[in-house]
DNA sequence: CATTTATTTGTAAACGATTACATACAAATT
DNA sequence: AATTTGTATGTAATCGTTTACAAATAAATG
């Protein structure tokens, strides 16, 4: 692979001139530009990002941190990030942290080392203090998950309000024994959604029964099914459930079906995230839609603004309750 | 961020010595090592990958090309690639090509420019001639999709045999009007699976009815549903369908349900890929499982072997027909 | 035509690491 | 004590760019 000097030699100019052609500097004569461009073609030359980045100390690469690739929840956000970034001359790289501090460190180092310019973190398990450190002199944005007490800018939805809206919907349908299938409450969104759940109960004068709250380890289908099994052992069974993720809801739906109950007649079910499968289940699933794609573009724009030296503020996005068959009356 | 010279100065040694400490060269005195390590800590120094890579012309970064993030098909393969790579000191970066030649080019350039060491391509729409060019002096492996006529090593399954196995299963259940919901036959796997479909018909003495073959634009649910609608207009309806992807099968299942037909009693259905949702549908879906994770690790090992200068051969992996409720008799 | 001004190009020093080679120093040998 | 040997460190070139600054060339002015 030829380098800039060989191109310069071939074209009979200096490497500086070649560089100027590459960077579309205005001071290059049409004639020399042609010579250089021809030489570039002849030698099949591609400028080395490595040399360029070293000199410019920027890479135009953005890192997107997600806990694991398997979660369909992230795909639309990523599409948004991707589209916006590419449009603005940045490429993104998806980084799976696996909630593994060592891997996480690799990615942090990529930023420290100028191999990447900034980070959009969607990892709820991210090491906040390290991220905070990094944020002192690097561009960082959090998406979906964030830390209420830190000042790293984020884009997210109002989880409490969303959960409240779900509950209101179920209560209006006449349910007064509503279960909550929540994930681990070490996650902020889980705590917030629980808050919304409890607030709705309180405001509508329904008692809070702790045995109707099931906390899962992760968001696998199995956990949703497991929750239903647990509830079925209760003396007084719930007639509806709000799962904080569509995957949990789909697992629950499966188990409800297995037990011969009809959804929504015998049991109503609401999920969260509006993943594409939620519209393919039988019955289709009522769920909360976040403006995923838009969250992605917003996060990307915030990051790029930071890179350009602007201050950015956190943003709360709207959400929407999508009512489908699983809660029809 | 401090650089190696500042560390050297702080420690009272030369930058060469610092570099030796960083690279664990054996010739460094314990005493100087300590001095250097202390200086590194004091200055909070992190070596720049940029400088290092430029000098060493290797980045220990691998690129994984996929057409889009949204397809759950890829997740397990990626996990395999990831695990193997990390274990061997490489990091992977996920690159969405969007079947966009320009984006594709960016990633190719990353390799040309030594920003990344090699590529695992899972993109069926990849520009083969460009990839071939790149493969002349760079490490490339194809996964799932490949080009029969090129010599880029690949890891894949025997699609024809898998399709044949599916058909045999359906035929044994007594079906003689079996539809094929295939994707665009510009893809190799689609052509191969069609071949298996036709071979089975022939060997079991069943007629090939072209109107029972539906080719889709993509793998969205809707396309599966659309296929069923199309078939329902036929004079003689199929009693079973083999969809070349679980997403298509799930869309088909939905539409079959909508039409009031019972699966598997009135209509049998087989998918492909064994995505996690295929076990959550009602009824659960018979499908073909590819050893995804293992394909990932294998592809990664092939790539890393190439990087170490070894020759590698293509590999065909086993597949497995997973019989579930959608084809019970 | 000589001089000034504007424009285009070249020179060389960064960026931050690694490493062949040279050198310094200590220990071992004569 | 002088010489040899071995080990630890330093010097400086290198990777491929970009960009102040200097230099050269062309155009404009008197």
Task: List descriptors.
homodimer, 329 residues, alpha/beta, 434 Repressor (Amino-terminal Domain), Rossmann fold, 3 domains, 6-stranded parallel beta sheet, 4-stranded parallel beta sheet, 12 helices, elongated, DNA-binding, Lambda_DNA-bd_dom_sf (chains A, B), Peripla_BP_I (chains A, B), transcription (chains A, B)
SSE inventory with pairings:
Two copies of one chain form a homodimer.
Chain A (H helix, E strand, L loop, with lengths): L3 H8 L3 H8 L7 H14 L5 H8 L4 E6 L8 H13 L3 E6 L4 H12 L5 E4 L6 H10 L1 E5 L10 E4 L1 H14 L5 E5 L5 H16 L9 E3 L5 H12 L7 E4 L2 H13 L9 E3 L16 E3 L2 H16 L7 E3 L2 E3 L7
Parallel strand pairs in A: 1-2, 1-3, 3-4, 4-5, 5-11, 6-7, 6-8, 8-9
Antiparallel strand pairs in A: 10-12
The structure holds a DNA duplex (30 and 30 nucleotides).
Beginning-to-end CA distance, first to last residue of chain A: 68 Å
Question: How would you name the oligomeric state of the polypeptide chains in this document?
Answer: homodimer
Question: pLDDT under 50 segments of chain A (min length 5)?
Answer: none
Give me the strand/helix succession of chain A. Answer: HHHHEHEHEHEEHEHEHEHEEHEE
CATH superfamily of the largest domain in chain A: Response regulator
In round numbers, the mean pLDDT of chain A is 92
- Helix amount of chain A, in percent? 40-55%
Structural class of chain A: alpha/beta
The general outline of chain A is: elongated
Instruction: Estimate the strand proportion of chain A.
Output: 5-15%
Largest sheet of chain A: 6 strands, parallel
Question: How many helix segments of chain A?
Answer: 12
> Which CATH class of the largest domain in chain A applies here?
Alpha Beta
**Biggest sheet strand line-up of chain A:** 2-1-3-4-5-11
Rounded Rg of chain A = 26 Å
CATH fold-level topology of the largest domain in chain A: Rossmann fold
Counting structural domains of chain A, the number is 3
What CATH architecture label of the largest domain in chain A applies?
Answer: 3-Layer(aba) Sandwich
**How many β-strand runs of chain A?**
12
**Greatest interface (CB-CB under 8 A), with counts per chain:** A-B, 48 and 47 residues
Organism (chains A, B): Alkalibacillus silvisoli
Keywords (chains A, B): DNA-binding, Transcription, Transcription regulation
Protein name (chains A, B): DNA-binding transcriptional regulator CytR
GO molecular function (chains A, B): DNA binding
């Amino acid at each position: 692979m030829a380098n800039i000097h060989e191109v310069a030699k071939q074209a009979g100019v200096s490497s500086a001139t070649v560089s100027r052609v590459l960077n579309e500097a205005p001071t290059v004569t049409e004639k020399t530009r042609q010579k250089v461009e021809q030489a570039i073609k002849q030698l099949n030359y591609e400028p080395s990002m490595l040399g360029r980045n070293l000199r410019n100390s920027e890479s135009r690469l953005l890192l997107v941190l997600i806990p694991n690739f398997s979660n369909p929840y992230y795909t639309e956000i990523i599409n948004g990030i991707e589209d916006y970034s590419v449009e603005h001359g940045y490429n993104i790289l998806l980084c799976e942290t696996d909630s593994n501090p060592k891997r996480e460190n690799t990615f942090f180092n990529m930023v420290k080392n100028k191999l990447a310019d900034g980070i959009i973190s969607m990892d709820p398990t991210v090491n906040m203090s390290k991220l905070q450190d990094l944020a002192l002199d690097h561009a960082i944005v959090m998406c979906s998950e964030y830390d209420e007490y830190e000042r790293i800018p984020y884009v997210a939805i109002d989880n409490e309000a969303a959960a409240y809206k779900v509950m209101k919907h179920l209560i209006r349908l006449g349910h007064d024994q509503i279960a909550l299938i929540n994930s681990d409450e070490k996650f902020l969104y889980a705590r917030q959604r629980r808050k919304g759940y409890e607030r709705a109960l309180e405001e509508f004068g329904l008692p809070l029964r702790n045995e109707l709250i099931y906390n899962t380890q992760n968001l696998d289908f199995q956990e949703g099914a497991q929750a239903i099994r647990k509830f079925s052992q209760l003396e007084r069974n719930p007639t509806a459930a709000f799962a904080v993720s569509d995957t949990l809801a789909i697992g629950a739906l499966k188990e409800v079906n297995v037990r011969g109950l009809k959804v929504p007649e015998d049991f109503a079910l609401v999920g969260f995230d509006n993943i594409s499968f939620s519209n393919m289940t039988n019955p289709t699933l009522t769920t909360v839609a976040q403006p995923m794609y838009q969250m992605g573009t917003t996060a990307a724009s915030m990051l790029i603004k930071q890179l350009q030296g602007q201050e950015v503020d956190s943003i709360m996005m709207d959400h929407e309750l999508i009512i489908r068959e699983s809660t029809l009356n």
